[in-house]
Amino acid sequence: MDSLERRRVQSAFDRAALRYDQWSELQQRVARDLATTLEPGAAAGGWVLDAGCGTGDALPWLARHAQERLVALDFAPAMLQAARRRQPGVAAVCADLHALPFCAGRFDLVWTSLTLQWCRLAPALGECARVLTPAGRLYATTLGPATLGELRTAFAAVDTHPRVRSFSAAAEVSAALDVCGLLPLRFETRIYTLYRPSLRAVLDDIKGIGANVSAARPAPLSRAAWRAVEAQYERLRTAQGLPTSYEVLQVVAARAPSGRS
Ligand SMILES: C[S@@+](CC[C@H](N)C(=O)[O-])C[C@H]1O[C@@H](n2cnc3c(N)ncnc32)[C@H](O)[C@@H]1O
Q1: Whose CA is nearest to atom 16 of ligand 1?
Q2: What span, in angstroms and rounded, lies between the C-alpha atoms of 25 and 56?
Q3: Residue 49 lies in a domain
Q4: Sign of the CA dihedral running 125, 126, 127, 129
Q5: CATH number at residue 141
Q6: Number of domains, the chain
């Protein structure tokens, strides 16, 4: 991701902050499932970082692990403001996950849910590893390549432009963990499926959270092309509505004993 794309992503999330909670059903489900994997005493009352905290949905649970020692970080200022409103007293830091403004070994637990897919994997995971204590734990989720597969296929009916972001495969995430000196203690892939009444509603979910930034910025579609995309997607309709799949990679990792990071 170049710096222009980074700024576009940052401002899309910034603009979405006020309405984010209405649209973040997937993000909330994923975070709750990750929270069930938190070991009791995971942070042992030590310091906890939520990297890419968004509006701070996870902060109340993390606060229980961290007591007063909780840091919420995001590069979108409006997201951080919402996080502060949700968890008054949290230390809120506006910064980029690729360059965490903390010294090495500062956190006992680093939590990052559905943010790494917006980052360059190895540099971002490298930063998470760097700020972990030697016995610290990383709890992370990110998206895999099957994510939004139905939408990708529907767009492919009209042209070959990549209109849907691509996501790293489990093998790439594994390799990045390894490069960063992180040892996976848990590595699971889960498919989450949301059902929506229309293509418009599928797209609203993505736009609602500010995730409607594509790397390629293809030309807008004509009305006829939109109708073709809709017709293609309609073929997948079930009794519950139009399905949208999200492949979620859930990772719990520790620093590898060799401490290469
Ligand atoms: C999809 S939201 C997830 C938010 C929250 N973790 C949740 O589960 O609801 C992604 C968040 O990551 C933030 N983000 C994306 N890239 C980032 C980066 N490089 N540095 C810091 N924050 C970033 C966005 O501003 C946004 O708030």
Answers
A1: 118
A2: 14
A3: yes
A4: positive
A5: 3.40.50.150
A6: 1
| Distances in whole angstroms, Cα of residue 46 to Cα of each of 64, 67, 105, 230 | 11, 8, 11, 50
Does 170 reside within a domain? yes
Atom number, ligand 1, closest to the C-alpha of residue 54: 27
Which of 6, 7, 9, 13 should be mutated for ligand 1, with most atoms under 8 A from CB?
13
Residue 136: inside a domain, yes or no?
yes
Q: The domain containing residue 110 runs over which residues?
A: 3-145+166-192+246-255
Indicate whether residue 78 lines ligand 1 (CB < 6 A). Answer: no
User: Taking a C-beta distance cutoff of 8 angstroms, is the pair 261, 180 a contact?
Assistant: yes
CA of 14 to the centre of ligand 1 (A): 10
Does residue 174 form part of some domain?
A: yes
User: How much distance in Å is there from the Cα of 224 to the middle of ligand 1?
Assistant: 34
pLDDT in tens, the chain (261 residues): 678 888 999 999 999 999 999 999 999 999 999 999 998 877 777 899 999 999 999 999 999 887 779 999 999 999 999 999 999 999 999 999 999 999 999 999 999 999 999 999 999 999 999 999 999 999 999 999 999 999 999 999 888 888 888 999 999 999 999 999 999 999 999 999 999 999 999 999 999 998 887 766 677 889 999 999 999 999 999 999 999 999 999 999 999 886 444
> What is the secondary structure of 175-196 as a DSSP string?
HHHHHTTEEEEEEEEEEEEEEE
